[in-house]
């Protein structure tokens, strides 16, 4: 542990949770979780951050057709932008990365779709719509059953095929 | 009166010490100065010069000039010194703007020429409405305005930013003929000024369970990346200024995260939120995009570091050497591991090497400009540069990279990204007609 880290931890321990540090300007304003809620959209692989609600593949299909297919193609087969299904087994750098053959965690689908999609109108989908789209995409490659609902409990439990397909490049930097 | 080449000067020029094959000269020739070099330079100039014309006053010397603008822009004669755009019409995909290294010199990238990648355009952020919130596994979640951050103790540092996908065309099985801008243009260097992230984390306090943070932008895709807390407490900065002025819109106005030496995409622009967490979020860009596939199908995860690298900018493809004689070989070197300690240059495809002069001061995790004097004899030459950093890392050969990472079976488009994190030696060939070509050697 570096001196800097030791120092930070030591001071944190010494001052406890209520005190700010004497050497900091202390100009930050306290903000409550309720006030942060609209921005607090990170989902962790264990499901932390997933909102209430849920959706099924059948509910996702029409949303996909209306809001996603113009770029990602019918049934996720690819269009002007990347396919969300398909992808041969990974072989080398020319292998296409898809959700089914590459993404290690299903939670990333929810996280990315909610924050960034549709490209022209991000952050307009409801949580129900994002769950439904996530379920639809996962069911296209039979990573879940056709009637499985995706919600805060079920989504983190989806085992993605390539979960163990990674090598940490610099473990000492983590 | 005509000025004729002087035989005596020519002989002095040829006395300059060659330190490596194919005309590479001692880097100290210029630093030493002195009679031999002065004579040599004179000889070069005279040998190369046509008869001079009589000097006259041009129109701009005989009339007052243009109005002085409130914000200066380069001369109209520099119109071609621009970035190249991958998506000029804003189609629904990522936009890349690449730095014209071959048209610049020194180590600082002017703000308008700093490379940018925007995944859904550049947001038009009102700085008075922008907020930075730090929350999650902290003792006190806090929100900062730009005005409050501007009152904090600041630091300035030189720092390169490089896209993890910079130099991706070198994974092509055949060398792609393109400029250094097209091949290496997703790296730039600036002086950044801002507040240390550790200062702000001192103020929020850190829950001992926190191991990572998620940094997130205010752009349309709300781009987010996970960063180990050790890096955040080491040298991370919330930057407010770029080369002295407020950060350019494409570079993250009004504030961005800077992680010196780490993958460009992690230096989250338009930064609005930092959440301390106990595990990485596995966001789209770390889970999918910046995870290069290796031969056999496994992929690297959390590459993070931009490793030691150099390339020659002068001369480089697209340039012509007009005639044999003196040229300066020059380029940039940088490493995410610290300072550049040495750059070697070869003019014979790596058979012999001359040590390049490094422009002082050499900053950690920043561009270092290297230079070597060169007497081109008019024959074929194969130019390469190879850098070392203070941590002892050496820039690999292309063969070494390909052995681990592979290469393409087809030639990809020059704007494509077959893989990432390519830092091997770049090779330029000088042909007899003076043309500069991209080759593998």
Describe the structure.
The complex is a heterodimer of chains A (174) and B (441). Chain A is built from six helices and four strands. Chain A is mainly α. Chain A has a domain at 54-157: Cytochrome c-like domain (Cytochrome Bc1 Complex, Chain D, domain 2, Orthogonal Bundle). In chain A, strands 2-3 form a two-stranded antiparallel ribbon. In chain B, a hairpin with a 3-residue loop joins strand 1 and strand 2. The longest helix of chain B has 15 residues, at 34-48. Strand 4 (166-168) of chain A pairs parallel with strand 16 (299-301) of chain B, so a sheet runs across the interface.
Largest sheet of chain B: 5 strands, mixed
Annotated CATH architecture of one domain in chain A: Orthogonal Bundle
Could you list the spans of chain B in which at least 5 consecutive residues all have pLDDT below 50?
Answer: 1-8, 34-48
CATH topology of one domain in chain A: Cytochrome Bc1 Complex, Chain D, domain 2
- The gross shape of chain B turns out to be globular
Instruction: State the strand order across the main sheet of chain B.
Output: 7-6-15-10-11
Beta strand % of chain B? 25-35%
| H/E element order of chain A | HEHEHHHHEE
List segments of chain A where confidence is low: pLDDT < 50 over at least 5 consecutive residues: 8-20
Oligomeric nature of the chains:
heterodimer
Number of helical runs of chain A? 6
Helix content of chain B: 10-25%
Number of strands of chain B: 25
Of all chain pairs, the largest interface belongs to:
A-B, 68 and 77 residues
Helix/strand structural class of chain B: alpha+beta
